[in-house]
Amino acid sequence: MTSDSKILLSESEMPRNWYNLVPDLPSPPPPVLHPGTLQPVGPDDLAPLFPMALIEQEVTTERYVPIPEEVLDVYRLWRPSPLYRAHRLEKALGTPAKIYYKYEGVSPAGSHKPNTAVPQAFYNAAAGIRRLTTETGAGQWGTALAFAGAQYGLDVEIWQVRASYDQKPYRKIMIETFGGTIHPSPSNLTDAGRKILAEHPDSPGSLGIAISEAVEVAAQHADTNYALGSVLNHVLLHQTIIGEEALLQLAKVGATPDVIVGCTGGGSNFGGLAFPFLREKLAGTMNPTIRAVEPASCPSLTKGVYAYDFGDTAGMTPLMKMHTLGHDFIPDPIHAGGLRYHGMSPLISHVYELGLMEAVAKTQKECFEAGVTFARTEGIIPAPEPTHALAACIEEALRCKETGEEKVILTALCGHGHLDLPAYGRFLAGDMEDHALSEEAVATAIAGLPRV
Ligand SMILES: *Cc1c(COP(=O)(O)O)cnc(C)c1O
């Protein structure tokens, strides 16, 4: 008899706390610095952009942060999310490995992003804020924040990276259906956007540029705050609901992961899945290998430097110590728009420096190949981002086939690809390019790092 395909939790079993990894680490991550004074930023420096509740979560040393009842209420629309055992993929690969995937595509946006969009909108509304600005790449984050804004009566204004805005028109319609406003970035609406357009009228945009535009508008209006969909500590904190649920689900079937893989853009779905398991690893109750997978065209962990850098292109944000390719690096327009970010979450970067996780880079075609194999076996068409994790899952499962090891592999299938079908069309037509960043390009990119 085979075991169940879906491992489900009831709504009453949903975790009621987010998990903060920081107090369990052997050393805390380096502080975020003010770009003018180069001193650690204080709450007042961040107050023009974020409500105090989120600033407190950004720096908290508490191990657990309670999830507000008003947030749990919205989470119940799709959470707890299912954990699947990939029986059909295992069979197709002929592997003795057991593959589990936590599916976040069941959310309103079709990805893990609402896990943090909902609490961010909640805390901003509670602080009397009327409007949120943000950036979006592929459009997942913009969709999630537009949905979350609708839950608490907030206006949401979004700058979408031009390349994705043109490639993915249905995201715009989805965002507008949820009540959000969307502009292509770079735009003529901000100083940051106008400056880029003056030099590069055909700029495909980047997440760094779109962040500059959204931050600029939020900083100029008292009733407007900014929301970020990845990278920051409070975002990773909110995403730990993924890993906390997965721990309970695996316990139900008596499984312990040997390998955890996830894709990393800014690191939030990866951290959200992995950190609760890292807590167990640090406590000695399990010992999984934790592996991040990034695109070879934007390899911040595997090829970037660990240094203080800006989060945006214009250099308006505080300086964060992270693995970075330089804040003015513009990655090739690969289809995994959510993975096109020059830096990595400071917390993930710190964990990587501590040697608690590893990282690999994959090129686009191998990832789409994995996405198609997954779709044909498990029946879900993955977003281009998690195909990176799936490619690494398949690689590990095939290694197990050679060695005969029955490893338990866990991944986050962090979104579905229903609005990314043009990318699959290109792949199926044999019309897709592989992009890998050369050593020379890396050297040029990081030459512009601020000297701290
Ligand atoms: C945004 C996004 C990503 C990249 O962001 P992380 O913070 O690294 O998770 C990956 N996958 C999907 C589906 C996304 O929407």
TrEMBL record:
Q: What is its EC number?
A: 4.2.1.20
What cofactor does this chain's UniProt record say it requires?
pyridoxal 5'-phosphate
Tryptophan synthase beta chain-like PALP domain location is: 77-415
Q: Does the keyword Metal-binding apply?
A: no
Could you say which enzyme class this protein belongs to?
lyase
Enzymatic reactions: (1S,2R)-1-C-(indol-3-yl)glycerol 3-phosphate + L-serine = D-glyceraldehyde 3-phosphate + L-tryptophan + H2O
What pathway does the UniProt record associate with this protein? Amino-acid biosynthesis; L-tryptophan biosynthesis; L-tryptophan from chorismate: step 5/5
Query: Any idea which UniProt keywords this protein has?
Result: Amino-acid biosynthesis, Aromatic amino acid biosynthesis, Lyase, Pyridoxal phosphate, Tryptophan biosynthesis
Q: Quote the PROSITE patterns the UniProt record gives.
A: TRP_SYNTHASE_BETA
**Database matches in SUPFAM superfamilies:** Tryptophan synthase beta subunit-like PLP-dependent enzymes (SSF53686)
Which GO MF terms are attached to this record?
A: L-serine hydro-lyase (adding indole, L-tryptophan-forming) activity; pyridoxal phosphate binding; tryptophan synthase activity
InterPro entries assigned to the protein according to its UniProt record, in alphabetical order: Trp_synth_b-like, Trp_synth_b_CS, Trp_synth_beta, Trp_synth_beta/beta-like, TrpB-like_PALP, TrpB-like_PALP_sf
One Pfam family of this protein, by short name?
A: PALP
Top-level lineage group: Bacteria
Residues with the modification N6-(pyridoxal phosphate)lysine, per the entry, are K113
Task: Provide a GO CC annotation, any one.
Answer: cytoplasm
Oligomeric state and interaction partners are given as: Tetramer of two alpha and two beta chains.
Described by its record, this protein's role is as follows: The beta subunit is responsible for the synthesis of L-tryptophan from indole and L-serine.
> What family does the Swiss-Prot or TrEMBL record give for this protein?
Belongs to the TrpB family.
Q: What is this protein called?
A: Tryptophan synthase beta chain
Q: Which organism is it from?
A: Paractinoplanes tereljensis
Q: What is the lineage of its organism?
A: Bacteria, Bacillati, Actinomycetota, Actinomycetes, Micromonosporales
What's the name of its gene? trpB_2
